[in-house]
Amino acid sequence: MTGAAGRAPRRDAPESPGEPEILVAATPTAAAALAAERLVRAIDLAVARRGRADIATTGGSTCPELYRALLARPLRDRIPWDRLHLWFGDDRFVPRSDPESNLQPVDTVLLAGDAVAGLEPAPLPLGNVHPVPVDATLAVGGGPADAAASYEARSAPSCRPMPPGGRSSTRSPSGSGPTATCSPSSRAAPRSTRPAGSSRSRPRPMSSLTSRA
Fold it and tell me: Are the C-beta atoms of 84 and 56 separated by less than 8 Å?
């Protein structure tokens, strides 16, 4: 695959197993296409191995292009949507309807489609979307740590640590595009004794799902 300028994406080989492979594309759209293709391959492999695929996503400006790439044919027809489960690597401690919630790209692009681009909504069962339970926690007066503890209990049976091996990071030269991913053995991976945690960073506290150390 080539970028918009006709150049093949630059590939920086991982230094060792567990380190991410870095792919640089010419534009955010090209970066999203690279990431989407690799994600679909990973989904296929997970479903073949254990009958389902669990992926962790995030919010911000990086995901909408990725979701649009997944909604476009032929990729969308290769995805076993009923076997796909969507988790969140982190989320701000705000209601789902808040524009700063990491669920916004999922709700407004992946599950809603893009009529202007001619993309239909993903046929992803709503029960397969597993958000950080911020709304439920807010309803009972809890805080970020409570949401993280609840998410840990909910995700633990399904989200097993990734095995060692290369993972891909795809970015455009501007620095936008899908965010980096890596296996727990990578030097770039976060180190935590718990798979879920909370941060009271300003202006918005956050709950995060991370790999075990």
Answer: no
Instruction: Quote the pLDDT of residue 9.
Output: 55
Is residue 5 situated within a structural domain? no
> For residue 1, is it within any domain?
no
Q: Would 18 be classed as within a structural domain? A: yes
- Residue 157, C-beta contacts closer than 8 angstroms, at least 6 positions apart: none
Structural domain including 197 reads 10-209
Over residues 41-63, the pLDDT tens digits come to 999 999 999 999 999 898 878 89
Residue with tokens 């956050």, as numbered in its chain = 206
159 close to 209: Cβ distance less than 8 angstroms: yes
- Average pLDDT (60-89) is 94
- The mean pLDDT value for 180-201 works out to 48
Instruction: Write down the pTM of the prediction.
Output: 0.74
CATH number at residue 85: 3.40.50.1360
Tell me: pLDDT of 183 over 80.
Answer: no
Identify the CA nearest to 14 among candidates 179, 164, 178, 161.
164
Enter the tokens of residue 157: 């049976």
CB 37 within 8 A of CB 21: no
